[in-house]
Amino acid sequence: MSTTKGGTGRRIVLWRHGQTSWNLERRFQGSTDIELTETGVAQARRSARLLAALKPDAIVASDLKRAAATAAELAVLTGHAVAHDSALRETYAGEWQGLTHDEIVARYGEQYAAWKRGEPVRRGGGELETEVADRAAPVVLEHADKLPEDGTLVVVSHGGTIRTTIGRLLGLESQHWESLGGLSNCCWSVLGEGARGWRLMEHNAGTLPEPVLGDDD
């Protein structure tokens, strides 16, 4: 995709889902299908009002409940149907799923440390971050390719999946993806289309800084 002369190019808004009880407990969700808390629903409604002002042209979301429910709040305001895709699910993390951060560090300390160093690690025997990007990034690009000139796509997904997708679309080496800080619940990042590809325009936007809770912190 190339930027049109005189235009700003297409935009991709990658929006993390609202709060869940497992986020509060710092319990790794991964592909486990956890619903939003009441606070998470309120976060989604607040953020949806802000994102609706961007006049998005399309919405695509993970099919897990926490992302689908978040996307639904924006769909109500925009009138757009949400396209759900399982390729946008959070990283499958095998034996890590359901464990708290402290439990992961205690049981899988070496594995956790290697992941934080940027090494390719199958956390809990699950997916590599590059494999998550392999499935998620093409879906994002497929929907972005359908946008009108200067159009905006909202992608509703998960912290780890958004991080890997941004890293892939920016052309960063996977060992550097950790340099992209995590997203707070219901915050988002914006990629803008430039002459040399996608550029990171905003990261973890949407509110005053809040703690990053839960997956991929």
Automatic annotation (TrEMBL):
<protein>
    <submittedName>
        <fullName>Histidine phosphatase family protein</fullName>
        <ecNumber>3.1.3.-</ecNumber>
    </submittedName>
</protein>
<dbReference type="InterPro" id="IPR013078">
    <property type="entry name" value="His_Pase_superF_clade-1"/>
</dbReference>
<keyword id="KW-0378">Hydrolase</keyword>
<dbReference type="Pfam" id="PF00300">
    <property type="entry name" value="His_Phos_1"/>
</dbReference>
<dbReference type="InterPro" id="IPR029033">
    <property type="entry name" value="His_PPase_superfam"/>
</dbReference>
<dbReference type="GO" id="GO:0016787">
    <property type="term" value="F:hydrolase activity"/>
</dbReference>
<dbReference type="InterPro" id="IPR001345">
    <property type="entry name" value="PG/BPGM_mutase_AS"/>
</dbReference>
<dbReference type="InterPro" id="IPR050275">
    <property type="entry name" value="PGM_Phosphatase"/>
</dbReference>
